[in-house]
Amino acid sequence: MQTYPKASLVRVKGKWYVQATIPPHLREAFKGKKQLRRSTGTSDRGEAERRLHGKAGEIFEEFRRAERLHDPLTNAANALSQYLPGEPSWSSEDWEPESFSRSEWRIEALYYNFMHVDPFGLEGPEDYILLGQMRDKAEQLYYDYRDELERRKASGPRSTRCVSSVSEELIANRKFGRQKTRQDHERAVQKFIAFAGDLPISQVDRPLALSFVDELAQRLAHNTLQRDVTFVRQVFAFALDRGWIDRNPFEGVSLRGKGASSTRRIPFRPSQLQRLFALDMKPQDRLCLSILAATGMRLDEVALLEWQDIRDEGGIRYFDLQRMHKVVKNETAARQVPVPSALRLPPRGVGRLFTYRRDADGKAQNAASKALMKYIRKVRDDQTDSRLTVHSLRHTYKDALREAGVPEEVQNFLMGHSGAGQGSRYGSGPSLAVKAKWVETLDLSFLNGKTDKQLKVA
C-alpha cells in the first residue's frame, strides 16, 4: 500500500515552502525529482503554518493526478485499444469496483471481434497481411493487459476515488442540521488529507488510520479528537456502503485515553464578579452579562433573546424559551426562566435585545463571546488562564443555587439540565412561582456595579 509522506515546512532564501517527498513510483512523472515544493508566499512562520494545509493539498492533488496517469492497468488497456474497433479510451475510473466487470467485458468483446471477425472492405492479400500483423501486435498487448488485470484482481478491484471526492459526495447526499457541522466535517477531512495526502480511498489501511489518530491526539483535546475522527470515519463508512472499499479502516479505533483533557471552567469569585460589573461597558454588553449572571442561561440563549421572549404570568416576569420555533440546544433547554427583581431591564422594545451578529446557522454566541471576553480577561488573576470565560458565569450561577439550598429538581429546570430518572420527562416541572421564589433567595448584589474605590472601602 502506497501512502504519501507528510508535508512539512522548509525555509529557502528567507521564504517558507511546503515540501513533500515524491513517492518513488511517481518520480518519473516529475522528471526524476525527489521532492515537490510549493511556496507559501510568506517569510512569517506562523502565517506559513496557517497556509500549510492548503499548499499540501495542492501537492497531493498533483500526486493523485500522476497516480491516475500512471495506473498500469489503465495504460495496458489503452495500449491494446489502439488496435480495437473504435479505439476506445480508458481512464482509472473505468476500473472502479462498480465499473470493473463492465470494462473487462467490453474489452473482451472488442478483442474477440477484432481477432475472429474479418472487417468489411478487405480487397487483396496485402490487406490480409496487414490485418495479420495488427492481430499479432494486439495479441501481445492483450497478454500484457491480462497480466495487469490479474494483478489487479489478486488485490481486489480498487477504487481510485480520492478521499476528497468521496467526502464531497457524502456532503452532497447528507443533510447537515447546521452549517457549522458541515464546516467541522470539511476541516476534519482536510486534516486527514494534510497528514496522508488525498489518497485513493482504497489505499487507506488500518495502520495509516491509527497513525493519523495518534498524530491528532498529540495536539488536540479529547473531545475535538473524537469529533474529527468521527467525521473522517463517516467518509469511509459512506465509501463502504457503496462498495468502493472492503472495510472501514477507522471502524473500532479506540480513542480512550487519547487527546488532552478538556479545559474545565472555573466559577467567578465574589470579588471578581464585583470587579466585572464595576467596569465601563457598552450598554448591551452590560445587559448581556447581567442576564447571564442573574439567570445562568447559556450565552446563545441570551444573545438571541427577543423582546417577545420576555413575558408576564401572574405578576411574575420571565424569559420564555419555550416559544414556538425558538432555537434552543435541546428539549430540556426549552424552559421558563424567572427574571429576578435585582435584574433591571431597559424599556421594552421590539425585535432582538442585542445586535450581536448571527452566523450561517442563526447563532450569535461567537460574536457575543468575542465582545464580552474583553471584560472577562480584565478580571482574571492571570491573563493566560483560559478557565475563566463567559461560560464561567453559568458555573457561578450553579454554585449559587447549591449554596442557597435550591432543590436539585428546581436547579435542573432553571438551568435546562436533564433530570435524573424517567419521571423527569413528564410534566413541565416546578411551577413558575416556585422557581421565582427560589431565584429571589440568591445574592445578586454584584449587579449594582461597585467601583474599584468602593470595593476598597468595603
TrEMBL record:
It comes from Limimaricola variabilis. Coiled coil: none annotated. Residues 157-240 form the Core-binding (CB) domain. This is Integrase. The lineage of its organism: Bacteria, Pseudomonadati, Pseudomonadota, Alphaproteobacteria, Rhodobacterales. Keywords: DNA integration, DNA recombination, DNA-binding. InterPro entries: CB, DNA_brk_join_enz, DUF6538, Integrase-like_cat_sf, Integrase_catalytic, Integrase_recombinase_N, Phage_int_M, Phage_Integrase. Residues 263-443 form the Tyr recombinase domain. Residues 32-51 are annotated as: Disordered. Belongs to the 'phage' integrase family.
